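Chapter summary example.
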Amino acid sequence: MTTSDPVLEPLAAPASAGATPIAAFAVFLARDRRRSPHTVRAYVATAERLVEHMSGSAIPDARQLRDYLAARRADGLCNASAARELSALRAFIQFTGGDDAMPRMRGPKVKRGVPRPVSPAEALALAEDVAGQGREAWISARDWAVLMLLYGAGLRIGEALGLTGAVLPLGKVMAVTGKRDKTRMVPLLPQVRQAIETYVAACPHPWGRASPLFRGVRGGPLDPSTVRRSVRIARQRLGLAERTTPHALRHSFATHLLARGADLRSLQELLGHASLTSTQIYTSVSRERLKAVHAASHPRSRRVARPGPTTPEPIEADIAE
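The structure predicted for these 321 residues follows.
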């Protein structure tokens, strides 16, 4: 009897009979690891590419993985995308072959980008323009309320559109379910609460605790692509930078709070970050602003400073009643 070589063993997942390794991997990510639908789709796509590259026959060794990643880089993958690809590969290979199945590999170096917030004036101009394009009054109220949640409460767009009628009636705080189904309590500014209440009163669709809070025209859940498209059209109309996206409003929320003295731990809780490292990136924005001010103002400065993020006013003062 011969001893099998784990490198040559077919991809086999510890899943129920009849489930393919990739299908079982998707269930594992969504149910056990509580990954977002976007992450599940991305990881499954990577697993499918790997299986196709390997002809579906074996758990790859280090050389084969390097060949696969080299082929992906030839397709135009940048360092950040290559790092994400390697992370997905690691998860899939460990799922199918065990913790020791993944060869030791170092990923590409990725310089972490600094969030690029928009100014308070830009955030409000954007929200006003998007709301002003609504075909009906309730749609305008809906769009204003969604963007106010992103800028005034720091929600991710998926979190805002995942809210249900269970949050009604509104109080001073709102329970928000974020990544990996983790729930956090988010304070609501009076202006944000009023925006949501105005929308709820105008919405023609019936409410239930399980009903989506933000509705599409026909009463179903509002699609994130609808919000992104409206923001894209509005920023073009206003001449704003391409960085002005729904997620940039969340960046602005964090950056403006930090600039006004919020501590990192509190900001981490408000944003729903699992790690403080994710929150610390916002300190880089403040440092860049300080460098720009120093370079522009100091009498010994010999260079022209690049403009940094606009010094914000307090968020509560920025949001119009």
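To summarize the output: The mean pLDDT is 75.
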